[in-house]
Design goal:
This protein has 291 residues and is α/β, with parallel strands linked by helices. The chain has 12 helices and 9 strands.
Length: 291
Amino acid sequence: MMADGAITQREYWNGEVGARWARNQRRIDAVFAPLTTALLDAARLRVDGSVLDIGCGAGDCAIAAARRLGAGAHVVAADLSAPLLAVARARAGIEASAGAPIAFVEADAQSHDFGAAVFEHAISRFGIMFFDDSAAAFANIRKALVPGGSLTFLCWRRIEDNPWITVPRDLVLPLVPEPEPGPPDAPGPFRFAEAETIRAVLAEAGFRDITVEAVDRPLSLARSGDGAGPTAAEAAADFATELGPVSRLLRDQPASIRVEALRRVSDDFTTRAVSGAVALNAGCWLVSATR
């Protein structure tokens, strides 16, 4: 699976990006908290059930699921990134102590053998858009579910539906070359931006009872402890340019461009700060299907 140019997804998430996300795990999970809640509420996990978390990252969803399931449950969380999994394992030892045990597995969910008819639920928060062969990946995930088991995941809608991305992106684009658009079916964050694409690939993999629901949530990109707008704006701009999708535009740019991009985004976010927080909307699909 290709991430950038000739770099595979495994190389991408085990390199500088994976290390940076691992260092900033708490910030990322705080920003996505409203979406995590929406995902887990929709999954309707059964107490003492079994869950497979696809693309688990630093373990936020897996740990939250383990708390909901209770000590008698079974949770397996899979990701390609060793740096993120190291953080996840450390967190789980503390944060999930009252819930189900979690087995973290460094694996590609497209091809890893999770067993047959093992899990009642499979969940994913933005971890299913990067497979080389989506139909094969979903078929593999379906195989791991018990008959009647459920798949619930979040993926991004169109970039135009995500001001948390487009606002900083529009501010940065005058400073950098316009990126070449990739093929619409290539692995990437907006691979399933269209609902019909999701329905088609899940149906091809054998899923039924497919529902695709639009979910919109304001994401608080940063909140200042002292309630000061400029402080929140600086922190939100740092998040947008270092950890959000805009970071790809800036990664190979000289320091002067990165500094100017941060200044532009920070100035704009200062005008958007309310009560010491900068919030912008996120548009997702909340998808459910049954084996």
